[in-house]
Amino acid sequence: MKKFNLILHETTILNFPFMGKLIRRYWYLAIAIPALVFSLSLYHFNHQNNIHKRSVFFSNINEDHTGPTPLMSAVIGDQKSGLTETDIVGILKSLDFQQEFAEIIIENPDFMRLDLSGLNSKEPFDMKAFLSSCNQKVSCIQKRVRGAIFSFVSIKPDHIVTTRFSLEVMTRDHFTTTFLLKEISRYIENSRVKTIKHKIEDQIAVSKQLLKEKKLELQAFNLQGLSEEKKSLEERVSEIKSKIESYNRFFHRLKLDLDLMETKVRETKKASQANIDTSKIIDFQKRKRWEDKIRKLESDIGAIKVVSQKLSSQDEQILAQLTSELKKVQKKLLSMGDRGRAVSSEVQFINRKEGESNFTEFDYKVKKEQYEKTKKDYDSLIAKKEVISKKLTKIDNKIDEIKPSAEYIKLLEEKLVQLRLLNSTVVSDLKFENEFGPKVVFKKLSKVKTLLFSTVSSIVLLLSIVILLYLLDDKIYDKSELEKTFDNLTIIGNTPDFD
Amino acid sequence: MAQPKYNPNKVDFSLKKEDETQGPKSNLKLLNDSTSQKEFKPRNKSNRFFYKVSNHQELFRIGRSFYEDYISGVKSFAISSTGYQTSQQKTILGLACFFDHKDDYKIAIVSDNLQQGAFSDIVSISKTYESSLFGEDYKIKVKSFYNHFDFINLNDLLDLSANQELGEYDSVFDYIVDSYDLVFWDVPELHKIQLDSERYFPMIMKFESISIIVSKKISRQSDIDELQQFFLGYGINMKGLLFEEKNNFEKKVEDIGTNKSDTVIVKKKWWQRIFSK
Asked: 3-class DSSP state for residue A434?
């Protein structure tokens, strides 16, 4: 514990000055360990294989919404969820993908030229020896090839453009790198088209099945029959409505006529039964006589004025006499006032009504009969209309019930058309660039990394070993250490020394 | 056997004062047999007995620490290690020189390895006399180095345990500690003590303080722990640890790199300079 207290420091964790002292104490380790580590690192660096790396960029056009397929899908309302970054990076992890690619690549004429040895392998690669352990078993060969190839390949996202990725292949051999890069990029595109088509075909099949089921459901309701019946009932209702309207107009007119007729009959009867006073008749005859006289006098005066342009004195005398006569008669008529005037009309009225009385009553009877018949017809039309309306409402309700199903079928049909259109225009959502990246040859662990690793390893190893030695070493090396180790004892001083 | 010359309770403990009164002088000097105890032999006259301590400051530091313990009443110091006898001897010699330089103390150095290592040269020129124990019945050989330090062979003391006539074996060690102002114990290797603990036990019980030498790049923590636990088990005060900066191997390398006789210093290569720690 005391030794640990010496090694550890409350701020810097390790007591570095003490570490320096320990390193100086075990100085041979300070030389040996870095020398050993650097020698091993140098040996490892020099014996690493040259790794041939090549990459090709590709874009996820489904994500950027600029490609033809997503645009078309968007136009016809297809809500597609494209590949996410994780999906794309994980494409190569799919065992189905790996298996299918292995099956294809084995059939390739250049397959035997590939170098599928591990990046750290020191031995030269022989494909026959590589596959010999499978004893010609196809599944075993595919499995081995699959495992080997996909340890060389990776997909990495671009750090700047989110929809851009790079497919990287690293092998020991340049030909294998380029070959695999070409074949895998091609296969990824084809695989994507196939996957998308497969998805759409599945959707088409599901839509078809659904459509068939919905149509069968709808047939049980006989929607067409209901629609025809509804149409016929609507026509009848419309016909009845127009009839009711015309009947209504006629009926009202008839009612007015009947009321008038009834009044006429009543008043005619009342008038024919009325008596006229005798003095009123005398006054009436006197007034009539004077009125005739005035008319004659006025016509005479007018005739005289028209005939003679220049009136003779005799004419003037006659004219004056006639004028004076006219004034006298007019005066007498005025002095009668209204007397005799009403009697004349009353008499005429009574006389006329006596004549008309029989006709009026007959007409009234006719009108009344006509009115009653019309009312009956009108009421019957209203009742009929109510019955048909109820029937129509029932049919409407039924149609409303099955309407969503019908709409659904309509949409399904539309969807089916869309899917068929999509299926015929599918392209890969992962678009590879035509040009491959430059060929890069490097070692797995670079010089800088090797140097850094060696330095860090040397320091860590040196410190670890020095600490371990210190913990295991029971010897006392200096006075301060002695003081700390035997803190319960006094350190008197150094022993005297003699020359 | 002689009585202690020095009573620590009457001593002026100021190190500075002593330096000031005596003025600057070399830290370690050995007296010739013709020289009195108070008169140090000039360094340039003879280098035969001259020990040069290369790290004076360190010696002064540890010496003062031991000196403080001595002032507080500790007089029996044991120096142990995980098997570096030479380092133990050099340390004891250095400390003995420090105390000897400090004042006129009667100092004993007890070791089972007097004929080898750092002691060998000094012991070879020391005078041997016999010191009697418990009257005149038992005697042990003591090698006196010009009255500066007395070297006692630990094996002689341990052998007394086999002497059936000697009633109290433990009192031999009491007698030694009582007879000197300062006793430095060159502790044998632990495995030796563990193998024959009965004989070593009286010696251990006389340790008033023990210091362990830790050698850079050689001493193991587990060994030091074992040593520490062993002596703590006997209830001996653990003074502390002494660190040996340059082990024997490094010294040899350095000696090869530096040709002292020709006074030509060969420079270390860049990698030796970087990785020398």
From this structure: coil
Q: Is the distance from CB of B150 to CB of B192 less than 8 angstroms?
A: no
Instruction: Kindly provide the residue ranges of all beta strands, DSSP E only, lying in A322-365, ordered along the sequence.
Output: none
- Does B256 map to a domain? no
Identify the structural domains of chain A with CATH numbers, from first to last. 1-46+464-499 (no CATH), 47-209+425-463 (no CATH), 225-415 (1.10.287)
Beta-strand runs (E) in A7-150: 8-9, 13-14, 50-60
Residue in this structure with the two tokens 């080997």, named with its chain if needed: A148
Closest residue on chain A to B28 (Cα) = A498
Q: Which amino acid is at B25?
A: K
How many Cβ atoms from other residues are within 10 Å of residue A431's Cβ? 17
Q: Do A495 and B52 lie within an 8 Å CB cutoff? A: no
Within 10 A of B244 (CB to CB), how many other CB atoms are there? 26
User: Can you tell me the ipTM of this complex?
Assistant: 0.75
B62 touches chain A (CB under 8 A): yes
A228 touches chain B (CB under 8 A): no
Tell me, yes or no, whether B216 lies in a domain.
yes
Packing angle, helices A95-107 and A174-221, rounded to 10: 120
Helix (H, G, I), strand (E, B) or coil at B244: strand
Gap between the Cα atoms of A132 and A110, Å rounded? 18
Residue B253 maps to a domain: no
Residue B274 to residue A489, Cβ atoms within 8 A: no
Q: Which of B62, B90, B216 sits opposite A498 (nearest CB)?
A: B90
- Chain B residue closest in CA terms to A484: B221
Angle between helix B170-179 and B197-204 (nearest 10) = 30
A19 vs A22, A71, A260, A464, CA distance in Å?
A: 5, 68, 135, 10
Q: Which residue of B has its CA nearest to A23?
A: B275
Per the domain annotation, does B252 fall within a domain?
no
User: DSSP code of A108?
Assistant: S
> CB–CB of B55 and A494 under 8 A?
yes
Residue among B52, B219, B246 whose CB faces A475 most closely: B219
Which CATH number is B138's domain given?
A: 3.40.50.300
Q: Calculate how close chain A gets to B2, using CA atoms only, in Å.
A: 29
Tell me whether residues A486 and B246 touch, CB distance under 8 A.
no
pTM for the model stands at 0.52
Chain B residues near residue A3 by CB distance under 8 angstroms: none
Which residue among A27, A482, A489 sits closest to B275, beta carbon to beta carbon?
A27
- Domain of B53, in residue numbers: 8-245
For chain B, 277 residues long, give each residue's pLDDT as a single digit of tens. Answer: 545 655 544 433 333 333 333 433 334 444 444 433 333 333 333 333 445 677 888 888 999 999 999 999 999 999 999 888 889 999 999 999 888 888 888 999 999 989 888 888 889 988 998 888 766 677 889 999 888 889 999 999 898 887 767 667 888 898 899 999 999 999 999 999 999 888 899 999 999 999 999 998 888 989 999 999 999 999 999 999 999 887 655 555 555 555 444 434 445 555 555 555 4
**Given B58, B211, B219, which is nearest A496 (Cβ)?**
B58
Residue of B nearest to A29 (CA): B275
Is B229 in CB contact (< 8 Å) with chain A?
no
State how far the Cα of A201 lies from the Cα of A419, in Å rounded to an integer. Answer: 8
Residue located via tokens 């490094």: B250
Question: Would the CB atoms of B54 and A479 count as touching at under 8 Å?
Answer: no
Chain B interface includes A476 (CB < 8 A): yes
Compare all CA atoms of chain B with the CA of A475 and give the residue at the minimum distance: B220
Task: Name the domain count of chain B.
Answer: 1
Which of A495, A498, A499 to mutate: most B Cβ within 10 Å?
A495
User: What distance, in Å, lies between the first and last C-alpha atoms of chain A?
Assistant: 39
